[in-house]
Amino acid sequence: MVESEISIPAEGVDLGGELIVPSGAVGLVVFAHGSGSSRHSPRNQLVARTLREAGLGTLLFDLLTTDEEQAEAETRHLRFNIRFLAERLTAATRWARARPTTSDLSFGYFGSSTGAGAALLAAASLGDEIRAVVSRGGRPDLATEALRRVTSATLLIVGGEDRTVIQLNEQAYEELQCEKDFQIVPGATHLFEEPGTLEIVAALAAKWFADHLN
């Protein structure tokens, strides 16, 4: 297993990250977290561990620098700037594609909250380079007109008690023209904090990526 703390250059800034690639990995999943989160998010870390157990590499990185995070906490000017976040995600993808340890792997995106909108916008731009996308409690609707251009196999996962986000995901699901699936986890709220619900998300994501990145 290759494990490393890394720094990703992106338009004049460096973004901290964590790249872990199990031996014999069949693909690499790049994470795009939501606003107010980071690569250290316990929820994304749990999902990442499950993906690695399924033979997938994971790249978790901070979409914003420390200074940007501090400014964002006060102004909230970046959390819904989906194009900006998608550009950061694309930069991380290009960086990973250029590394010897990951250059030959199939790539996928795991997006949470607004990060899911950024993941789908980036996937629409990169086309066949991104084989699969999974959204957890995401806002795929924020990718707007780009949804119809997504070719990556896309799985939307929403908590059964997250009713507003269910409606937004239903609307986005109708716009998607790619291979797709929509799963609702009963009893789960937006952050999947209820016992066992995040493990269901992780298992669904692991199967989706294993099926489409192998």
Describe the structure.
The protein is built from six helices and eight strands; from the N terminus they run βββαβααβαββαβα. Helices cover 38% and strands 26% of the residues. The relative contact order is 0.16. The mean pLDDT is 91. Helix 1 (42-53) crosses helix 6 (197-213). Strand 1 (2-10) and strand 2 form a beta hairpin. The two termini are 18 Å apart. It has a single domain (2-213), classed as Alpha/Beta hydrolase fold, catalytic domain (Rossmann fold), CATH 3.40.50. The protein has an eight-stranded mixed sheet with strand order 1-2-4-3-5-6-7-8, with helices on both faces. The longest helix is centred in the last third of the chain and has 17 residues, at 197-213. By secondary structure, it is an alpha/beta fold.
What's the overall geometry? Answer: globular
Portion of residues in helices? 25-40%
CATH third-level topology: Rossmann fold
What is the level-2 CATH architecture name?
A: 3-Layer(aba) Sandwich
Strand order of the largest sheet: 1-2-4-3-5-6-7-8
Distance between the termini: 18 Å
**Main sheet characteristics:** 8 strands, mixed
User: What would CATH call the class?
Assistant: Alpha Beta
Q: Unreliable stretches, pLDDT < 50, 5 or more residues?
A: none
Compressed to H and E, one letter per element, the order equals EEEHEHHEHEEHEH
Strand content: 25-35%
